[in-house]
Amino acid sequence: MIDLLGRAGKLDEAEDLVNNMPFGPCTVAWMSLLSACRIHGGVERGSHVADCAFELDPTDSAPFVLLSNIYAAAGRLDDATKVLKVMNDRGVKKNSGSSFIEINKKVHEFVV
Fold first, then answer.
1. Alpha-carbon dihedral 5, 9, 11, 13, rounded to 10 degrees
2. Beta carbons of 109 and 94 less than 8 angstroms apart
């Protein structure tokens, strides 16, 4: 539901839903909202949401990368660089992307 509201641009409603969850928000909820902030350019909200995601899982690279992208898209390149520096200083590593393809009944993996 958070993802749907976020994609529709209803960031206030999505954040209200996250904040009023009876069992407390998880990383997935915060990341869904952070992705919506990236799509709709919610820089200040994105910064707050990323902080909430950092608290739940400080070793996850995704909120660092998304927040850096939010800042870069808003023209705040110094802030984008700072976020990536903090990520590096904390020893958080971005996971490599990979893709699988099957050719002649043999699976091949490509790592980026």
1. -50
2. no
Which of these, 81, 79, 3, 76, lies nearest to 37 by C-alpha position? 3
- Amino acid symbol at 80: A
Question: Counting Cβ atoms within 10 Å, is residue 93 exposed (0-12), middle (13-18) or buried (19+)?
Answer: exposed
User: pLDDT averaged over consecutive 10-residue blocks of the chain (112 residues)?
Assistant: 93 93 90 94 93 93 95 96 95 87 92 82
CB distance 101 to 107 below 8 Å: yes
pTM of the model: 0.81
**Exposed/middle/buried for 25, CB within 10 Å: 0-12, 13-18, 19+?**
buried
Q: At what angle do helices 62-73 and 43-56 cross, to 10 degrees?
A: 170
